[in-house]
Amino acid sequence: MMTSIIILKEMVDLNQDPFYSSSTTDQISKQMLGMLLTYDSPKGRVGGWIVETEAYMGQKDSAAHAFKGRRTASNEPLYGPPGTVYIYSIHGRYLLDVAAQEKDTPQGVLIRAIEPTIGLDIMEHNRTRHGVDLTNGPGKLMEAFGISDKTMNMEIFGDSKLNIHQRDKKTPALIEESNRIGVANQGSWATKPLRYFVKGNPYVSGIKKRDVNLDTHGWC
């Protein structure tokens, strides 16, 4: 019996990525900047460097889906093991989140934007807007990837067609922070600086032209 329990525990541990519970969710959000996000789509691999994220801090966070312990079929992936894929829709657009923290601690990181580098022709075919508008927002990113459903929910990044390559990473010269976007009416946490982005990167959502670094895109 003891041997069976040990083997079962090892199998569970193999399905968890320690990175996503290695620090606080806001710190993990910062550490994800510069990592390579990929999706093995039916048309081929697409992806790019993560340039913008937002942290959602669970039950205490008035802007989070799990505020006050809310738990539904829709947000169940947030309660999954660290590294769980959480796809949800707002106003007809799909957004991509990763569960950060141990199982049943419903905190997550929203991937808001990437600098596209892989499968540009595929992404441009999926989107009517190109250039920086290709992936400079969470809904645009998912449309460029061609993801329009939630079938990958509850899968684990890396064991899924979605992957965040932690060791394939660029280094931001400077990380900036601000209040999160689209949560202005979500209580006392709406103005907390839990949005993080690579300063000067043209694919950051809403960045002004004068703030773009055309030479380095904000990388070291």
Describe the structure.
It is a single chain. The radius of gyration is 17 Å and the shape is globular. The chain is built from four helices and eight strands. The termini are far apart. By secondary structure, the protein is of the alpha+beta class. The longest helix has 13 residues, at 2-14. Strand 3 and strand 4 form a beta hairpin. Residues 1-14 have low confidence and may be disordered. The chain is 16% helix and 27% strand. Strands 1, 2, 3, 4, 5, 6, 7 and 8 form an eight-stranded antiparallel beta sheet that branches.
Q: Between the first and last Cα atoms, what is the distance in angstroms?
A: 53 Å
| Oligomerization category of the chains in this entry | single chain
Shape: globular
Order of helices and strands: HHEEEEEHHEEE
Largest sheet: 8 strands, antiparallel
Number of helices: 4
Low-confidence runs of at least 5 consecutive residues: 1-14
* Mean of all residue-level pLDDT scores: 93
The computed structural class is alpha+beta
- The percent range for helix content is 10-25%
**Proportion of β residues?**
25-35%
Q: What is the β-strand count?
A: 8
Radius of gyration: 17 Å
